[in-house]
């Protein structure tokens, strides 16, 4: 399992598509999920 350090968490959290980031995971925004599906369907 990937573990993020404090610096990585801070950098990831600055991404507008990230809702929450912690040591063992990332929660993405609804907008990110919608864009991902649109790109996948192309």
Give the tags.
42 residues, alpha+beta, two-stranded antiparallel sheet, 2 strands
Query: How much is the average pLDDT?
Result: 96
The dominant shape is elongated
Oligomeric description of these chains: single chain
Radius of gyration: 12 Å
**Order of strands, widest sheet:** 1-2
Number of extended strands: 2
Question: Can you give a write-up of this model?
Answer:
This protein has 42 residues and is of the alpha+beta class. It has one domain (6-41). The chain has two helices and two strands, in the order H-E-E-H. The protein has helices spanning 6-13, 30-41; strands at residues 18-22, 25-28. It has a two-stranded antiparallel ribbon. It is elongated. The protein starts with 5 loop residues before the first helix and ends with a helix. The model has no long low-confidence stretch (mean pLDDT 96).
Can you summarize this structure?
The chain has 42 residues and is α+β, with helices and mostly antiparallel strands. It has helices spanning 6-13, 30-41, and strands at residues 18-22, 25-28.
Layout of helices and strands:
Elements (H helix, E strand, L loop, with lengths): L5 H8 L4 E5 L2 E4 L1 H12 L1
Antiparallel strand pairs: 1-2
